TrEMBL record:
The gene is htpG. It comes from the Bacteria. This is Chaperone protein HtpG. It holds the Pfam family HATPase_c_3. It comes from Peribacillus asahii. Residues 552-626 are annotated as: C. ATP binds at residues 31, 35, 77, 82, 96-98, 117-122, 167, 341.
Length: 626
């Protein structure tokens, strides 16, 4: 039989198929199984309009067989088969899709959508095979034909014998190279893994002869290998089942089977949408944070299926970064895929799905917060930081989406509270939402700066995450109430003795000027404190950059060395003030310098900031003791 040449610039196209279009060679099996599924679907649709045909789904299957010795891999289907003309037309022309033509000619119903569109999936076989042989017998035909090709140089078609309707694709697997171990595609475990990964939810059974081990008959300790035919795929995906048929255990089992995590999910979300874009989704909110969640190795994304066939293991465009902890999958028949069915050709449908998923996740989290506070708090302990980062990221674009999900520890309630709960309890005379920053709640509780706000009976939110204050600066306000740090220069609280403080500051202007001179490059001002009650000294910050933000930024790898504008505040009702004032009145400037430096370093320690010269600090302490 004379060899025929491919059409449509076959050599260039086939070279692209083998080297450029597919990112992973294992995908060839997904493509061939999808084609086999389409072939069976075509019989189903024929039966809808042909009274002489009956379609019994149990009679149809796909079988994958490996022959290590012969180095062949065979994919057999009981589908519609191909005539000689169809072999010529569909396999002799690269990028000619018989499935796409069938879709155009037939109205598809009952969720039996044809998978193929481009007519290139078949040729992915040449990524792993030197020779591809197709033996096919068409429905209604008495004749069978064999199509065979070694690649871009052409193909042969000749009559052959085949008893049953359907198609066999026989791949003669390439020899191993230094870079590729092609023989892995003849290994049972590898083939099962690829089928489960990509084709687990093909609607027809995918069968394989699987090796088992059992005791030899009549023996107590001698074992033998045996083979039995098994169905490898699950066939009916859980997301296509009616929600009423499923239990919490079914969802948990699916979570474990898909290896989304080793924990139990706190919440599952089952979405089914029929509209402009049809899709099904099952989403999980995990209980525990993955070990690599905050590392660069972590990849966000949902599994993306098209018609039950896995297209992407992790599609990052389906969920925003601040919901990156969500696990699960999306299946849609309406995605526009590229030629390799790996990457989306256009993202209009994907954006629509992503927008709906974002809204659904937010509603479920709000529902969890409202109806199961304990579970929400457990979730928030794991992933609250990511929500706060979402508020800060992209200049606060998503702050309105996330602000009602935020929680912070409350000085009054001694537990996590929402911003809405805080605002609902605010006294009428309270202008701001007050917060304090620190490493732990215990350290914040002891901060000198909290004294005035606490004495007024105002609630304080404790910020212990690095991102907290950055997020709040981006949020600006909540329900028209601005945020105010207890360490800010102006607390917005008027006190009866404010005039007394101002008089004290004026009366001791020369002393404060001298202290400011001693600390010339360390602080922007030294003044009487209105906030301190029992502590002698503290630092406050002026401007947008707080002391806590300075600490966080200076811990970054690029070491920005930023400085907040600090003010040293002195409690004039404390005994230390009397000593300081006495030294100044006695014109003992050396002692004033000593006290000033000690007070400044004390304030640094309270803030958790490093002392610039520890040796000088210890010498100053020794001078005081002597």
């Amino acid at each position: 039989m004379a060899k025929k040449q491919f059409k449509a610039e076959s050599k260039r196209l086939l070279d692209m198929m083998i080297h450029s279009i597919y990112s992973q060679k294992e995908i060839f099996l997904r493509e061939l199984i999808s084609n086999a599924s389409d072939a069976i679907d075509k019989i189903y649709y024929k039966a809808l309009t042909d009274d002489t045909l009956t379609f019994d789904k149990d009679s149809y299957y796909i079988k994958v067989s490996a022959d290590k010795e012969g180095r062949t891999l065979t994919i057999t289907d009981t589908g519609i088969g191909m005539t000689k003309e169809e072999l010529e037309q569909h396999l002799g022309t690269i990028a000619k899709s018989g499935s796409l033509a069938f879709k155009s000619e037939n109205e598809l119903k009952d969720g039996h959508d044809i998978i193929g569109q481009f007519g290139v999936g078949f040729y992915s076989a040449f990524m792993v095979a030197d020779v591809v042989t197709v033996i096919s017998k068409a429905l209604g035909s008495d004749e069978a034909y064999k199509w065979e090709s070694e690649g871009a140089d052409g193909y042969k078609i000749e009559p052959c014998e085949k008893e049953t309707v359907g198609t066999e694709i026989i791949l003669t697997i390439k020899e191993n190279t230094e870079d590729e171990k092609y023989e892995e595609y003849l290994e049972e475990y590898r083939l099962k893994g690829i089928i489960k990964k990509y084709s687990d939810f093909i609607r027809y059974p995918i069968k394989m002869d699987v090796t088992g081990r059992r005791l030899k008959e009549g023996s107590e300790d001698e074992y033998e290998d045996y083979q039995e035919e098994q169905i490898i795929n699950s066939m009916v995906p859980i997301w296509r089942k009616n929600k009423n048929e499923l239990t919490a255990e079914d969802y948990e089992n699916f979570y474990q089977e898909k290896r989304y995590g080793f924990d139990k999910p706190i919440k599952h979300i089952h979405v089914k949408v029929d509209g402009t874009v049809r899709y099904n989704a099952i989403l999980f909110i995990p209980e525990n944070i993955p070990f690599d969640y905050y590392s660069k190795e972590f990849e966000k994304g949902l599994e993306l299926y098209s018609n039950g066939v896995l297209i992407m293991e992790k599609c990052p465009d389906l969920i925003p970064d601040y919901f990156s902890f969500v696990k699960g999958m999306v299946d849609s028949e309406d995605l526009s895929l590229n030629i390799s069915r790996e990457i989306l050709q256009q993202d209009k449908q994907l954006k629509f799905i992503a927008k709906n998923i974002k809204t659904k996740i937010k509603k479920e989290l709000e529902s969890l917060l409202k109806h199961d506070r304990e579970k929400y708090e457990a979730f928030y302990q794991s992933f609250g930081r990511q929500l706060k980062f979402g508020v800060y990221n992209n200049f606060g674009q998503e702050k309105d989406v996330l602000q009602d999900l935020l929680m912070f520890y409350s000085s009054k309630e001694k537990k996590l509270v929402t911003l809405d709960e805080y605002v609902s309890r605010m006294p009428e005379d309270q202008k701001y939402i007050y917060y304090a920053t620190g490493e732990t709640n215990e350290r914040i509780e002891k901060m000198p700066q909290t004294e005035l706000v606490a004495d007024k009976g105002y609630e304080i939110l404790y910020f212990t995450d690095d991102v907290d204050e950055f997020a709040i600066k981006m949020l600006l306000n909540y329900k028209e109430k601005e945020f105010k740090s207890v360490s800010s220069g102006d607390l917005g609280i008027e006190e009866e003795n404010d005039n007394k403080h101002e008089a004290e500051e004026k009366a001791n202007k020369e002393l404060f000027d001298l202290m400011k001179e001693v600390l010339s490059e360390k602080v922007t001002d030294v003044k009487v404190s209105k906030r301190l009650k029992t502590h002698p000294v503290c630092l406050s910050a002026n401007g947008e950059l707080s002391i806590e933000m300075e600490k966080v930024l200076n811990m970054m790898p690029n070491n920005q060395q930023v400085k907040a504008d600090k003010t040293l505040e002195i409690n004039v009702n404390h005994e230390i003030w009397k000593s300081l004032k006495s030294a100044f009145e006695q014109d003992d400037k050396e002692k004033v310098r000593l006290y000033t430096n000690l007070l400044y370093n004390q304030a640094l320690l309270i803030e958790g900031l490093p002392i610039q010269d520890p040796l000088e600090f210890t010498n100053d302490l020794c001078k005081l003791m002597v």
